[in-house]
Design a protein that fits this description.
The structure is a homodimer. By secondary structure, chain A is mainly α. Chain A has six helices and two strands; from the N terminus they run αααββααα. The structure holds a DNA duplex.
Chain lengths: 151, 151
DNA sequence: TGTTAATAAGATTATATCATCCGATTAACA
DNA sequence: TGTTAATCGGATGATATAATCTTATTAACA
C-alpha cells in the first residue's frame, strides 16, 4: 500500500540507495539489484532507466553492463529521486485535496500542515546519499539476511 | 494527483466537513454537496454511504432525505474519517517502503521520519470538527464564490 | 394511495498504476 | 567474428482506484 510516494518512487529510492553503497563506478545488473532487494527485476530496470534520463544514474549495455551512480553520492539527495519520479507536488498540494489552498483561502488544516510538510521536505533535501551511507548499509544487509533466514 | 490520502478519503473529509457546518440534523442531499464542493455526485454518495457504516454520518432515504452527522461535531476528528476510509497504515508503514522498518532494522530515514509522522497524526487526531468549524466555513464558502466567478 | 425525490446497492466502465514480456541493441571476450 | 549477457524501449497484461450507470427501496406529501 502506498504511503507517501508511489511504488515506483520507492523502488527508485531503494535501488539508488543500493548503488550508493557499492564500490565507485562498479556496474550492477538489474538482476543483482532485484535479488538483493527482493523486488521485481523488470520494475527495477524500468525505474532505473527513467532515472538515467535525469542523470542520477547511468547505465551501460552489453556484457558486464549494468547501472551505476552518475554523480558522487555526496551530490545526490533523496529529493532528487523523488522529483524525478513522483514530482514535488506532494510538498505543495493541499493535504486534504482542496483546490486553491493557500494563505488567502486556506483549508482548515493549512496552517498546521505547512510546518510538517516543510520538515519532511528538509528531511529529504538536506541529507545526501553519502550522509546516509552507514544507515543504508545496515538496512540493506538486513534485507539479505532476512531473506536467507526464510529459506 | 494523490498527496497523502486517497481521493476517496479526500472526498469523504470534504463532505463531512461540509455537513459539520450545517444546521444540526439537517439532511443534505448528495446532489447539494456535489454542487457545493464541485465533486462528482455519485462519488460523494458512495463515500458517504461508506461512512454511514462506521457511524460517522447517517442517512435517510426518500423525499427530503439526505446525509447528516451521526454524532456531535465535537466528537468527530479527521482521523476518524481517515481510519474509516484509508486506514491508518500511512502513519505506521515505512515512508520509503522498506519492509520490516522498525527500531531494530530501521530504514535510513526512520529516526527522522518518526517525529514528522507523529506530528501529522496529532494534527488529525486532536482537533475535532467543532474546533475546525470557523476555518471550514471560510474555506467552503470560498469554493462556492470561486465557482460563481468562473461562470 | 399514487407520485415524486431521495438514498442504497450492485454492476459496469474508465483511468492510472503496477508488473511483465519480448525483440532490438550493445559490448565483452573467447 | 560469433556467442553471450546485459540494457533499452515498445507493447501488453494485471490490478487498484476512480467514476458512472441502473435498478430497488424508501419516505414525504398531495
Amino acid at each position: 500500500m502506498r504511503v507517501f510516494f508511489s511504488k515506483k518512487c520507492d523502488i527508485g529510492i531503494k535501488a539508488v540507495l543500493f548503488l550508493s553503497i557499492q564500490e565507485k563506478n562498479q556496474k550492477i545488473s538489474a538482476d543483482t539489484i532485484s535479488n538483493e532487494l527482493n523486488e521485481p527485476r523488470e520494475f527495477i530496470s524500468k525505474t532505473l532507466q527513467e532515472l538515467t534520463k535525469s542523470k542520477i544514474v547511468a547505465s551501460r549495455k552489453g556484457k558486464d553492463g549494468g547501472f551505476y551512480l552518475n554523480k558522487e553520492a555526496s551530490e545526490i539527495r533523496l529529493i532528487d529521486i523523488i522529483a524525478a519520479i513522483d514530482g514535488l507536488d506532494v510538498f505543495k498540494e493541499c493535504v486534504l485535496g482542496f483546490s486553491g489552498c493557500n494563505i488567502e483561502t486556506p483549508c482548515p488544516v493549512h496552517d498546521t500542515w505547512g510546518p510538517i510538510r516543510e520538515r519532511a521536505y528538509k528531511l529529504f533535501s538536506t541529507q545526501t546519499l553519502e550522509d546516509l551511507k552507514e544507515k543504508t548499509e545496515v538496512k540493506i544487509y538486513s534485507i539479505k539476511n532476512n531473506l536467507r533466514n526464510k529459506k
